[in-house]
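User: Hi! I'm a student and our assignment asks us to look at how structure tokens line up with a sequence. Could you show me two examples?

Assistant: Happy to help. In each example below, the sequence comes first and the structure tokens follow. Example one:
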Amino acid sequence: MKLEDLVLVSIDDHAIEPPNAFARHMPAKFKGREPHIETLKGRDVWVFEGRATGYMGLNSVVGRPKEEYGMEPLGYEHMRRGTWDVQARVDDMNANGVLGSLCFPTFPGFAGQRFQQYPDARDVSLAAIQAYNDWHLHDWCNAAPGRFIPMALIPWWDPQAAAAEINRMAKGGVHAISLSDNPALHGFPSIHDEYWDPVWKACADNAVVINCHIGTGVKADHASDLSPIDAWITSMPISIANSAADWIWAPMWKKYPTLKMALSEGGIGWIPYLLERADFTHRHHKAWTNADFGGKKPSEVFKEHIITCFIEDDFGLQNLKHIGEDMVGWECDYPHSDCTWPNSPEVVWESFKHLPDATIDKVTHLNVMREYSYAPFDILGRENCTVGALRAQAAAKGVNTAPTQGMGGAAPKREAGKPVTSGDINAMFKQADAETAL
């Protein structure tokens, strides 16, 4: 296999919702109450039910020189067009040699947690969730057949309504939902509670994968305001390890043995030790904890039900036998600061060189196609889906991938020779919240 032969499918990217995303999908009775963009003190902010979201860009810095990565976009003009325009996104995917993409939301929160925060407006919140889902499916994913894996949001406050929404979206070909890795941290029942059974059943019945993005429940803590922001960025992916252990011991796997979930943007290098520790814990403590895996090891449950993914993870790829190569996928993380656009093929190729071709195919696309019921070859033809073929399309169209300087935005205060700290970043976000308060 050569680099040009790779077929890359990313199961962790992000879309910035365009200003009109909700308008045409909101029911008539809620017209005027849909989430919408307002410009406040030079910032484009989303407003819903009288609340404004301070930073709508969420570190969407793709296309900038790395020296400007600290610049947080304040509006659409500060972001590369591919962050919010679907046709420009496809162009950027082609330039990066990426066939398929699963895109998490931005304004709603990666798991739609923003829409769960209005207990006195559940009807309009549900309408907003459904409007988002319809925009995401019809205006984003279906605008480029074969290029996206659609993913829906659900209302956490009503499991029956959530199951109904899963069923509704599944009829349109949606086989993924986004959910917090720990809803209990948001004031909802634990994943160990029977409360969620209608959701698990609807997912199992429709072959829907539950996607839990880092930061939607357990979050990486800032060690201190004086700590360099690099330390926090380093710990971000592995912060989901605590939730991973929680999901291993959760009860839904016995009830719904075909159910699958994904630890999104969590990386894979840390997983071998987690599984070793889980098996040790079960051997050493099951006599008094009453844990029962039906004769299986916790590591076996993980490998059967939990999908993982990586951006750049040499150690993990060298230890796939301890992780389970049939449940590992790849991610680009476009347009966030960890993404490897437009050089993703070159980055992963360095890590893949030692792997057999069959393993490369599994982790780059076959595992994802199987688990997410995603069949782009049927639409596009496999010969048109490789890195080489997609980049040829981008070259023919003249897609420019050169870094653009001075795109604008807000930046933390910096001093020459002094590291940017967690306190610097937190101060920047607090200022944004204060300036956009309604």
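Example two works the same way, sequence first and then tokens:
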Amino acid sequence: AEPAYQHAGSACPHSSSPSRKGTPMSVSTRPAAPGAPAPDPDGSTRTPITKVVFASLVGTAVEWYDFFLYGSAAALVFGTLFFPESDPVTGTLLAFGTYALGFVARPLGGVVFGHFGDRVGRKKMLVVALLMMGLATFAIGLLPTYASIGLAAPILLLVCRLLQGFAVGGEWGGAVLMAAEHGDPARRGFWSSWPQAGVPLGNLLATAVLFVLAAVQSDETFEAWGWRIPFLLSAVLVLIGLWVRLQLEESSVYQEAKAEMAERTDDAHLPILEVLRRYPREVLVAMGMRMAENISYYLFTVVVLTYAKDFADIGTDLILQMLLIGAAIQFFLIPAIGALSDRVGRRPLYLVGAIGVAVWIFPFFGLASSGEPGKVLLAVVVGLFFHSLMYSPQAAFFSELFGTSVRYTGASVGYQLASIFAGALAPIIAVKLLASGDGDNTTAVGIYLVVASAITVAAVIAAKETRNTSLHHDRVLD
């Protein structure tokens, strides 16, 4: 038995005492399922963790390539192509409106994918999520514009965006859990941070494709048909992601939890109800922790494009170049910070990141609008560094908050529900605030992020450190 520990404010030891809240799950007394990898003494499987991490990373990168591509296109061309009867700023806001609706679909995707991921397995749901995202993104590349079919064009765009959001809602939880549940506890922060690194990698791919197209095409050509190329290219990436993910196996942690549920419960297992009943505090903590992280990321990577194009009037080429470099740096930062979280804990890093983005947002726009490459790069890299201090340990943090039989649902709901109030609204609110006053109100945007950071700091303070916890616990089995 492992020592008792504090789990999100509740004692969750791993002994067999019936008076404790956490319920242990046997690791060595039950034989492995046919064809399943045999469990090691620490609960991890003999499936190479590098294989699991690579599969999670590749699939996550493809998903976020598709998702970020839409955000960049919304900032650059969707306002003109799908909402041409509006002025430029209003058209961009409408494009960001369809962008935001993708976030609204994410919690629903988290619930649906989490439900089946907790009941039938992580792997199957990850394959379905990747296929759904790929089809929706490829379809966007084929959509006729407003000039061709009128109002039907933005409606079809909205449908594709909702499918993207639904798929991403199911992607994140499954990807990080595959890495967290397969990896050894002492390095869980490091291993589970790799799927998080798929986000900057996906952003890097999306930004790189847009940058190359901007370099070889005129603005007129890009707006006419060049913007479709990145969306159509997603089909190739999806096939690669599927090939890798189909080779994954379920972790022994999940297999044990599934067997325990089959033995110890007679009723149908409904993960979302169990999460709301037994983990409401953890859901609220996760949501609060997401606010500064999610909002700051979209300010640093998406809103800055609109700011440069519509408010600072410096064009987007330089910003795209610096975002490309920034994404590459963040890709290496995230696993490094994940490893650090295994040594110093999740909470200290998260607190520094939340406070850091609140401070950095005020010089950020001034540096980004300078037009000087060095200053623009500094703005992006420092912003993404503070963001990484939150985003890197987040995967392990959220995984450790919830019991195994509801972990996919709990982590996904906490993560995705917050995105409605954070990432979904961030571009809309930020552009509205920028347009207020004299038309370049970056101070208002800074105050907006400060408020979000205060919420995140409060949530981190309310949470308990989870670094030394085991994933072999489950309140649902009480």
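Here is something you could point out in your write-up. Residues 133 and 315 are 30 Å apart (CA to CA).
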